[in-house]
Amino acid sequence: MKCRMLTLNSEQEWLRAGQWLKGRTAPDADVEKNVREMLAAVREKGDAALCEYTRRFDCPDFAPPLRVNERDIACAAAQTPPEHREYILSAAANIRAFHQAQKERSWFTSREDGSILGQRVTPVDAVGLYVPGGQGGATPLVSSLLMNAIPAQVAGVPRIAVCTPPCADGGINPVILAAAHLLDIDEIYRVGGAWAIAALSYGTESLAAVDVVAGPGNIWVTTAKRLCHGSVGIDMIAGPSEVLILADAGANPVLIAADMLAQAEHDPLASALCVTDSPALAERLQAELQRQCVTLPRTRTAARSLMDWGAIVIVPNMRTAVAIANQIAPEHLEICAADPWALLPGIRHAGAVFLGQYSAEAVGDYIAGPNHVLPTMGTARFASALSVQTFCKKTSILALSPDFVRENAAAVAGLSRLEGLEAHARSVEVRLP
Fold first, then answer.
1. Fewer CB within 10 Å, N- or C-terminus of the chain?
2. Are residues 225 and 325 in the same domain?
3. Does 331 qualify as catalytic in the annotation?
C-alpha cells in the first residue's frame, strides 16, 4: 500500500492536482430511482412496506411490532457491562455540557414610538434520529445516537424517535438500547434504510411523522434524506468522512499516520490527507502509514481508502498549507505544528479544527463534547456542525404602534405599488386616520 505523494509550488496548483478527489462524489444512477420507489411504497402502504423492505434487506423472518418494547430497552441497559455504561455516561456528560453553551435566547427590543420587535426561539415538536446498526449490528454506532439525541434534548424537543435497522435475528444491538435508556429515550423502531427515512418523514400506522430527521447513513439513507427534505427538515447531506492534517517539520509522523488511518478505516471512500512543508516528514509518514496499516483489523478498507483518496502533499511553507486547507474545506482539520494557534486565524473553512498533537480526531468523535456530525465534501464553506440550532426554529415577533405605522405608511404603500401589489398598499392606508 502506497499513498500518493504530491509536490506543489503554490496553492494555485492544488486546483489541478486535487481534481481526483471529486470522484468521491460520483453518484450511482440507480440509487435515486430505487429510493424514490421506496419512498412511494412507504407513503402508500405504510407499515406493510416497512416490514417488506426489512425482510428483504435486514431480517428475513421479520415480524411486527416495529417499536421496541420499553421493557426490552430497560433489560438491555441492565445487562450492559458497567464499564460500557460509564463510557456512555462520560461521553454524554461532555456532549451535553458543550451543547448547553449553544442555547440561544429569545429576545425583544422596544422603540421610542412604542413598537416592540423581537425573535422567539422554540424547539420543533418531534425529531427522528437514524442510527446505523453497523456491520449487521456487530458494531453499533452508539456515538451517533449521543451526538444527535443530546443536542435535540438540550433544545427542548419533546419527542425523539429513533430508527435503527434490526440484526438478522430481528433484534437491536443491546448497547444502542442501553444508550437510549441512559438518555431517557424510549421510542425506538426496528427499521432502517431509506424506508426508515420515509417513515419518519411521512408517517405510518406505527410511526408518527417528525419535523426534523437527523443522523448518518449510507448512500441510500442520504439520498432518501435529500429527497424528503422539504417535507421535513434534515441535519445535512453528508458524504464520506475525511481528515486533513497540516504538519510542520517538527510533527510526529507516528501520530499523523495513526490519525490518517483512523479516518481511512471508516470506508473505502474516506479521505485522509496530510499537507506538510517538510519533505523529510513526508517520507517518514509514507513509511509509517504502511507499517501501521498492515496491523489493522480493517487493513483492506484502510489501504483502499489511502490508495484511492489519500495523499501526502509537500508545499513550500505553512502559509501555502493553510491556503490549500481553505480550498478543500475539510470535515476534520488537524493542525500539528509548533504553534497551532498561530495558524488558526488563517483557517476559514473547516467542520472542526483540532489543535496540537493531543487533539486526536477520534477523541472528538466520541467524548470531547463538540458534535461529530460535520459538513463534508467541501460544504464547510457554507455549512456548520450539527448543533442545538438544528432542532430549533426562530419566529419573528412584531407588535407595531400606531405611530410607527403612520410614519412609515407612505413608504410601505409606495414600495407595494412599485411591485404591483395594490392590496398591500391599501391594507396599510386603511389604518390611517
1. C
2. no
3. yes
Query: Per residue in 204-227, pLDDT tens?
Result: 999 999 999 999 999 999 999 999
Q: Is 302 helix (H, G, I), strand (E, B) or coil?
A: helix
Q: Tell whether 415 is covered by a domain.
A: yes
Write down the pLDDT at residue 138: 76
Residue segments in the chain with a per-residue pLDDT below the cut of 50: none
The radius of gyration of the chain's CA atoms, rounded to the nearest angstrom, is 25
DSSP string, 68-135: PPHHHHHHHHHHS-HHHHHHHHHHHHHHHHHHHTT----EEEE-TTS-EEEEEEEE-SEEEEE----G
pTM for the full predicted model? 0.94
Question: 187 by DSSP, 3-state: which?
Answer: strand
Catalytic residue, chosen from 331, 334, 361, 372, is: 331
226 and 243 share a domain?
no
377 three-class SS: coil
What is the pLDDT at residue 30? 87
Active site residue 332: yes
314 and 370 share one domain: yes
Final residue belonging to a domain, choices 182, 200, 234: 234
The boundaries of the domain holding residue 364 are 4-21+239-381
Residue 26: the pLDDT is 62
Q: Which of 99, 266, 332, 372 is catalytic?
A: 332
- Determine if residue 97 is left, alpha or beta; phi over 0 gives left, psi from -120 to 50 gives alpha, anything else beta: alpha
Residue 319 lies in a domain: yes
CA distance 37 to 47: 15
